[in-house]
Amino acid sequence: MPVTAVSGSASGIGAAVCTALRAAGHRIIGIDRVNAEVIADLSTRQGRQTAVAQVLEQSGGVLDGLVCCAGLGVTAPSSSLLLAVNYFGVSELLDGLADALAKGQHPAALVIGSVAATQPGADQQPMVKALLAGDEAQALALANALGQPHIAYACSKYAVTCDARRKSVQWAAQGIRLNVIAPGAVETPLHQAAKGDARYGKAVSEFVAPLGRAGHPEEIAQVVVFLQSDQASFVTGSVVFVDGGMDAMVRAQHV
Ligand code: NAI
């Protein structure tokens, strides 16, 4: 039975991923702040180290899969907390669990990014450079100084996508696949909170995908199951948009 660790397992997309992977025969080690096999706070280095140590203990040091879903949206208490969870809470899990994945059967890892990663100008933000350099203190300080959670969110998702693609190249030699899914709007507590936010609610509600609706968490989870399966054995380093056509609507000429 493949063993897969899933962060953000207690809610939304992560919970749907756990259900779908269990149905596909995986044993799941969920990681979250509550209601999970591993209780850890991914916003701190100590919490990430706890998460890695407990996953290694519960898996016996061998993992077949890792899916990083935990994340905060634009209603996060601060931009720095958002970056800490969305970037370092992913990057450090990938680093900490790479050796266990290398020992797994047909290992595959996956990061939940976002269409927000393609937001114009996100790639030029100084905080992205700090994130990709692993300078957490500098990145968090820059994000708080800017005080624009939607830009911090886009930067966190752009940087985490770049980090995953860089790692996919390094990890290929060990036979570990690593992909990114970029969801559009998906009906989860995170999305509901954004729609109800005084600053962002109107824009979020009015930005509707060509398919005319937001996605359901299960519609992301099914693509996760495929990418984590041997049916996707030649897919690595890819960014798969699962967004009801949002990216095509905004960037048809970007291929
Ligand atoms: P959600 O709020 O339903 O679930 C997020 C999970 O992450 C929660 O269980 C939460 O407890 C966990 N989490 C947050 N901070 C944590 C921390 N410090 N330590 C440990 N766990 C923590 O949100 P949703 O929508 O399921 O989000 C999952 C991922 O999908 C996130 O990375 C989000 O950015 C991404 N995403 C969501 C979209 C949407 O419209 N819902 C669109 C694009 C991307």
Write the SSE topology:
Layout: E1 3-7, H1 12-23, E2 27-32, E3 38-39, H2 45-59, E4 65-68, H3 79-102, E5 108-112, H4 126-132, H5 136-146, H6 149-171, E6 177-183, H7 189-195, H8 201-206, H9 217-228, E7 239-242, H10 246-250
Helix pairs in contact: 1-9, 2-3, 3-5, 3-6, 4-5, 4-6
The chain binds 1,4-dihydronicotinamide adenine dinucleotide.
Walk me through the structure:
With 255 residues, the protein is of the alpha/beta class. Helices cover 48% and strands 13% of the residues. The protein has helices at 12-23, 45-59, 79-102, 126-132, 136-146, 149-171, 189-195, 201-206, 217-228, 246-250, and strands at residues 3-7, 27-32, 38-39, 65-68, 108-112, 177-183, 239-242. It has a seven-stranded parallel beta sheet with strand order 3-2-1-4-5-6-7, with helices on both faces. Helix 3 (79-102) links the parallel strand 4 (65-68) and strand 5 (108-112). Helix 2 (45-59) runs parallel beside helix 3 (79-102). The longest helix is centred in the middle third of the chain and has 24 residues, at 79-102. It is globular and about 45 Å long. The model has no long low-confidence stretch (mean pLDDT 98). It binds 1,4-dihydronicotinamide adenine dinucleotide. 1,4-dihydronicotinamide adenine dinucleotide binds at residues 8, 10-14, 32-33, 41-43, 69-73, 85, 112, 114, 183, 185-186, 188-191.
